[in-house]
């Protein structure tokens, strides 16, 4: 997946009510800043000017969020009724989301349930970050749960890494990034939660791979192509497969 430009937006799914895009890494969903002209919103306006809704500030209704650094499947509602239907699915926890990631080190267990409560970091210089309960400056931590399933062990630029499937069972800001860091396996290229140390990779290796939203009268189910394969990134060298990705997705369903 090449870096984002105004005219290379990848569409995974489209109907009269919804579009699911494959969001590029290092692109914000929207921005009011003049120096950030390239956003997902601007890509959508360029590709689908006729679908922009004048009743919304950004022109499009985003059904959920992805971090600036995260790529992958993101659903956009094309009208108010569709947005309400999707919101209901999220509220009733009917949505299935699964992410792919490369994490530092070799995860020894085949499956890990991570239950650290997450709050806002109030430490000076880190107020843009989240933190786990019990750390200094962690404000208002709330219960969180993520599932980590090991897919492959290998190396990235010669360093040991593990390819994993991550499923957030709650929806806190930066949840997967904080949880992976908390168990000693931070996501490769996560500049923020490595405190600026992990800066060599060209991107953070977190990707929203699978999305299933059973809205009324329509089943949205998409996969955003896996970017963590040697053909896409020669620095990633798989060495041992633990579980097949497709088998794991079938289990989630």
Description:
This is RUSD1 protein. Belongs to the pseudouridine synthase RluA family. It comes from Pachyramphus minor. The protein has 253 residues and is an alpha+beta fold. The protein has a single domain (10-251), classed as Pseudouridine synthase. The chain has helices at residues 40-47, 80-91, 175-182, 245-252; strands at 10-14, 18-23, 61-62, 71-77, 96-104, 111-114, 118-121, 130-132, 138-142, 146-156, 159-168, 206-215, 218-223, 236-241. Strands 1, 2, 3, 4, 5, 6, 10, 11, 12, 13 and 14 form an eleven-stranded mixed beta sheet that branches. The mean pLDDT is 94.
Offer a few descriptive terms.
253 residues; alpha+beta; Pseudouridine synthase; 11-stranded mixed sheet; 3-stranded antiparallel sheet; 4 helices; 14 strands; 14% helix; globular
Structural topology:
Layout (H helix, E strand, L loop, with lengths): L9 E5 L3 E6 L16 H8 L13 E2 L8 E7 L2 H12 L4 E9 L6 E4 L3 E4 L8 E3 L5 E5 L3 E11 L2 E10 L6 H8 L23 E10 L2 E6 L12 E6 L3 H8 L1
Parallel strand pairs: 4-12
Antiparallel strand pairs: 1-2, 2-4, 3-4, 5-11, 5-12, 6-10, 7-8, 7-9, 10-11, 10-14, 12-13
How many beta strands in the DSSP annotation? 14
* CATH homologous superfamily annotation: Pseudouridine synthase
- Could you tell me the strand content as a percent range? 25-35%
* Helix-strand topology string: EEHEEHEEEEEEEHEEEH
Rg (C-alpha, Å): 18 Å
When the domains are counted, the total is 1
Number of helices: 4
Mean pLDDT: 94
Distance between the termini: 26 Å
InterPro entries: PsdUridine_synth_cat_dom_sf, PsdUridine_synth_RsuA/RluA, RluA_PseudoU_synthase
Family: Belongs to the pseudouridine synthase RluA family.
Pfam families: PseudoU_synth_2
Organism: Pachyramphus minor
């Amino acid at each position: 997946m090449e870096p984002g430009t105004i005219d290379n937006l990848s569409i995974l799914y489209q109907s009269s009510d919804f579009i699911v895009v494959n969001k590029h890494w290092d692109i914000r969903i929207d921005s009011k800043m003049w120096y950030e002209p390239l956003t997902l919103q601007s890509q959508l306006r360029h590709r689908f000017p006729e679908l922009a809704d004048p009743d919304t500030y950004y022109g499009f209704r985003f059904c959920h969020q992805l971090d600036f650094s995260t790529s992958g499947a993101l659903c956009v509602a094309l009208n108010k009724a569709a947005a309400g239907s999707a919101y209901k699915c999220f509220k009733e926890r009917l949505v299935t989301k699964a992410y792919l990631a490369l994490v530092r080190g070799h995860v020894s267990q085949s499956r890990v349930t991570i239950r650290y409560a997450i709050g806002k970091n109030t430490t000076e210089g880190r107020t843009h970050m989240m933190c786990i309960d019990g750390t200094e400056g962690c404000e208002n931590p709330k219960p969180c749960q993520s599932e980590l399933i090991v897919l492959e062990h290998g190396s990235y630029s010669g360093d040991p890494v593990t390819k994993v499937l991550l499923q957030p069972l709650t929806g806190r800001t930066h949840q997967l990034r904080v949880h992976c860091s908390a168990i000693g396996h931070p996501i490769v290229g996560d500049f923020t939660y490595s405190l600026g140390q992990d800066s060599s990779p060209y991107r953070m290796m977190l990707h929203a791979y699978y999305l299933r939203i059973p809205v009324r009268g329509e089943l949205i189910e998409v996969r955003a192509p896996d970017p963590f394969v040697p053909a896409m990134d020669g620095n990633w060298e798989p060495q041992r497969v633990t579980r097949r990705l497709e088998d794991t997705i079938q289990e989630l369903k």
